[in-house]
Amino acid sequence: MASTASEDSAITGINVTPLVDIILVVLIIFMATAPLIHNRAMKVDLPKSAQHERAATEALQVVYSAQHEISLSGKRMTEGQLGVELQALVARSADLRVALRADRNLPYGEIVQLLDVVRGAGVHKIGLEVKAK
Question: In the predicted model, is pLDDT for residue 16 greater than 70?
Answer without folding.
Answer: yes
